[in-house]
Design brief:
Strand order of the largest sheet: 1-2
Shape: elongated
Number of helices: 4
Radius of gyration: 27 Å
Helix content: 40-55%
Strand content: 5-15%
Distance between the termini: 75 Å
Number of strands: 6
Structural class: mainly alpha
């Protein structure tokens, strides 16, 4: 009886040791598969977004240029202007809409915002993060990134990442003379907004 009991204990102990040795391998394989699935999901989203951007470029830049005989008219209201193509800020806003539509699960999001939007633009008020980012970039002009993390034990953690949109000469030429501009004294290097 004692030899049988010894054999059972040995089997139980051996199984336990084997399980402990195999557990890291199982965890590693599970994590690897989860990472692969997540990377595939992001790759599909990026592919969808790029396809949508290519379609946007064709419909809103190439087609208007072809219809106007090659005469481009950069405009924030480009859809209503013969030969109209989007100005850079409008293009960024439009890209954000396309990007966010391809990430409907809200796992990733993009916004191009400013505290001086054109009067013709409808937008939500800036949230606290966006306001802080603008303040930080304007007070520290050499800073190139502002970010905040909100880790949660339960629920979805978030990480927000902002970069400044800096005024170049072409931007100033437009914004300081545009009838819908809410600020007309921009200078080279000013922080126009964030993305």
């Amino acid at each position: 009886v004692s030899q049988s009991r010894y054999r059972q204990q040995w089997l139980v102990m051996s199984s336990f040791v084997l399980a402990i040795l195999i557990l890291p391998l199982v965890v590693l394989m599970t994590l690897r598969e989860a990472a692969r699935v997540e990377m595939k999901k992001h790759a599909q989203k990026i592919s969808t977004a790029i396809t949508d951007l290519r379609r946007y470029y064709n419909d809103n830049v190439i087609a208007p240029l072809q219809q106007s005989g090659g005469k481009a008219v950069p405009s924030d209201d480009f859809r209503n202007v013969h030969g109209g193509i989007p100005i850079p800020a409008t293009f960024s806003i439009e890209i954000g809409k396309i990007f966010n539509q391809s990430h409907e699960d809200t796992s990733l999001g993009y916004a191009f915002v400013s505290d001086y939007p054109f009067t013709s633009r409808k937008r939500e008020p800036l949230d606290a993060f966006q306001q802080r980012a603008l303040e930080v970039f304007r007070s520290q002009p050499n800073l190139t990134v502002y970010e905040e993390s909100n880790p949660r034990l339960l629920g979805q953690s978030t990480h927000r990442y902002a970069t400044p949109v800096v005024m170049a000469q072409a931007c100033i030429n437009c914004h300081n003379t545009h009838p819908n501009s809410t600020k007309r004294d921009w200078k080279l290097g000013d922080i126009r907004g964030i993305q």
